[in-house]
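Hi all, posting the design record for the shared folder.

TITLE: backbone redesign
STEP: 1 of 1
STRUCTURE INPUT:
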C-alpha cells in the first residue's frame, strides 16, 4: 500500500481550517487539522506530515512560534517544511520567527489558494486531480432524491456522462422516513436512509460523479446552460434535469421533531397504513389537509382536522367530500401547542386561538398537512412555475425552456411518492437523450 501523504493544517479558526481542507482536497492527500500548538505537536509526531501550514498568531492557544519551537526541539519529528500564514507585513512576521531556516516559509493572508494548492501538490509529487466540471456535459442533474438518483442511472447507461450536483444533505425527503413499505423490490420494509444509500451506490457504480454542493445559480439564457454552486464550482451542460424536490412544512415545535416517524408524519399516502383503527389528527385547512384526512379514514377509526381558522381554505369539492365523511370531525380556531408521547405519539395539546385555553386530546398520530415548499428559488424565476412555486413541466418532463427537464416533487404536487419521482427521473433522462439527438439531426 502506498504511504499516506498527510498535510497538517493548524489554526484556532475552524473557518480557515475548512477553507484549507477544501482548497487542498486531493484523492492522494489526507488533510488533517489541529487547533493549537500542543495538538499540532502530537499530530506531527504521530503522522509525520509532509508539510505543516499554520497561522503565525493563534491567540489563547500559544502562537505558531511556540509550535515551531516544540517541533524543532523534538528529534522524533522530521524537519518538514512549515508555512506560516500571516496578516502582518511579511518583514515584521519574519522578525517573529525564532530561527532563520529555509524550510520555514511565510505567506500573506488573504491566501492565494491557487498558488498554495500548486505548491502543496508539487511538494507531494501528485498531479492535479481531474476537474470534473471543466468539460461540457451532455446532462447535469441537480438534486439527490429518488428522481435525481434515477436520472443518472439512465443517462450513464446512454453514455451521456452525467454530472450530479446533490447538495450537502444528500438523499432527499426519504432520509427522514423510518420505514418505506411501498417501494417495489423490497418485500420487507426498508428504512428511507438505507433505500437512498442503495440508490446512491447504484449511481456511483455506474461511474457517475456526484458533487456534494448546492447549486445556487443557473443561467438558462445561455447555451450551453450554466450552473454554479455555493462553493463556486461551475459547470456547463447541453441539458439540465431539475430534481430538487420539495420540503413538507412543519410546525417547528420540539416534540414534532422528537416524534417524527413515531406517530408524526407529513405523508398520509406513505404512512396512513400504520394507523389502522387509531384516532389521528390532521393539521391544516387546505386541499392537502382534506385529501389527507379523507385518505386516512381508510385506516383510522377517527380523523380530527385541527385548523387555525373557522373556515377552510380547501376547494368546495374537497371540503364537501371531507365534511360528508362520518369519520372526519373538525376543531376550529385551534393550533397544536405540543405533541405528547414517550417514544410514540399518545396525544396533542390544543390551544384555542380565541380563548388561549389549552386542552389535551388523545390520539395515535399527527399528520401535518400545512403545505410543501418546492425547492425552486435558485432558479431565479427562469422557468415557468405555478402560484406555489412548483416547476411547470409537461407529461414528458419538458419545462418552459427547451433542454431543461424537471422530475419528482419539484414539479409534482399530486403524487409525491418516491416511486413516481424515480419514474419521472427516468423519463427526464430519456427525454434529455432524445432532445439532444433531435438537436443533432436538425
Ligand atoms: C415524512 C415523509 C415520509 C415519506 N414516506 C414515503 C414512503 O414511505 N414512500 C414513498 O414513496 N414516499 C414517501 N415520502 C415522499 C418521498 O419522500 C418523496 O416523494 C420523494 O422523496 C421525492 O423525491 P425527489 O427526488 O423528487 O425529491 P426529494 O426527496 O425532495 O430530494 C431532493 C434533493 O435535492 C436536493 N437539493 C435541493 N436543492 C438543491 C440544490 N439547489 N442543489 C443541489 N441539491 C439540491 C435536496 O437536498 C434533496 O436531497 C415521504 C415523505 C416524507 C416527508
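Okay, here is what came back for every position:
SEQUENCE:
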Amino acid at each position: 500500500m502506498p504511504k499516506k501523504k498527510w498535510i497538517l493544517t493548524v489554526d484556532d479558526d475552524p473557518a480557515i481550517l475548512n477553507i484549507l481542507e477544501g482548497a487542498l482536497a486531493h484523492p492522494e492527500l489526507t488533510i488533517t487539522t489541529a487547533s493549537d500548538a500542543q495538538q499540532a505537536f502530537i499530530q506531527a509526531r504521530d503522522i509525520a506530515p509532509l508539510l505543516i501550514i499554520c497561522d503565525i498568531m493563534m491567540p489563547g492557544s500559544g502562537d505558531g512560534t511556540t509550535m515551531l519551537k516544540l517541533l524543532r526541539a523534538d528529534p522524533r519529528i522530521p524537519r518538514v517544511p512549515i508555512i506560516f500564514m500571516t496578516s502582518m507585513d511579511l518583514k515584521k512576521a519574519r522578525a517573529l520567527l525564532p530561527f532563520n531556516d529555509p524550510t520555514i516559509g511565510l505567506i500573506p493572508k488573504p491566501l492565494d489558494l491557487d498558488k498554495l494548492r500548486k505548491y502543496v501538490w508539487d511538494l507531494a509529487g501528485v498531479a492535479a486531480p481531474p476537474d470534473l466540471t471543466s468539460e461540457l456535459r451532455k446532462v447535469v442533474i441537480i438534486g439527490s432524491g429518488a428522481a435525481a438518483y434515477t436520472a443518472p442511472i439512465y443517462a450513464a447507461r446512454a453514455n451521456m456522462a452525467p454530472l450530479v450536483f446533490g447538495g450537502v444533505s444528500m438523499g432527499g425527503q426519504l432520509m427522514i422516513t423510518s420505514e418505506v413499505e411501498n417501494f417495489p423490490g423490497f418485500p420487507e420494509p426498508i428504512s428511507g436512509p438505507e433505500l437512498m444509500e442503495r440508490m446512491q451506490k447504484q449511481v456511483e457504480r455506474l461511474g457517475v460523479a456526484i458533487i456534494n454542493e448546492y447549486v445556487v445559480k443557473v443561467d438558462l439564457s445561455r447555451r450551453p446552460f450554466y450552473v454554479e454552486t455555493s462553493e463556486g464550482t461551475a459547470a456547463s451542460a447541453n441539458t439540465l434535469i431539475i430534481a430538487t424536490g420539495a420540503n413538507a412544512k412543519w410546525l417547528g415545535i420540539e416534540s414534532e421533531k422528537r416524534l417524527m416517524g413515531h406517530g408524526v408524519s407529513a405523508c398520509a399516502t406513505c404512512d396512513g397504513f400504520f394507523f389502522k383503527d387509531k384516532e389521528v389528527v390532521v393539521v391544516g385547512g387546505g386541499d392537502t389537509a382534506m385529501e389527507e384526512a379523507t385518505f386516512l379514514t381508510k385506516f383510522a377509526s377517527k380523523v380530527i382536522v385541527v385548523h387555525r381558522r373557522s373556515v377552510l381554505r380547501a376547494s368546495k369539492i374537497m371540503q364537501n367530500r371531507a365534511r360528508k365523511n362520518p369519520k372526519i370531525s373538525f376543531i376550529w380556531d385551534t393550533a397544536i401547542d405540543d405533541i405528547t408521547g414517550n417514544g410514540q405519539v399518545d396525544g396533542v395539546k390544543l390551544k384555542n386561538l380565541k380563548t388561549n385555553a389549552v386542552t389535551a386530546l388523545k390520539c395515535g398520530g399527527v399528520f401535518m398537512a400545512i403545505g410543501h415548499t418546492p425547492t425552486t428559488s435558485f432558479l431565479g424565476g427562469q422557468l415557468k412555475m405555478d402560484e406555489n412555486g412548483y416547476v411547470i413541466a409537461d407529461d414528458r418532463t419538458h419545462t418552459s425552456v427547451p433542454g431543461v427537464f424537471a422530475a419528482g416533487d419539484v414539479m409534482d404536487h399530486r403524487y409525491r411518492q418516491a416511486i413516481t419521482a424515480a419514474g419521472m427521473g427516468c423519463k427526464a433522462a430519456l427525454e434529455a437523450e432524445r432532445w439532444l439527438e433531435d438537436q443533432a439531426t436538425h
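COMMENT: The chain has a mean pLDDT of 91.
Let me know if anyone wants the other runs.
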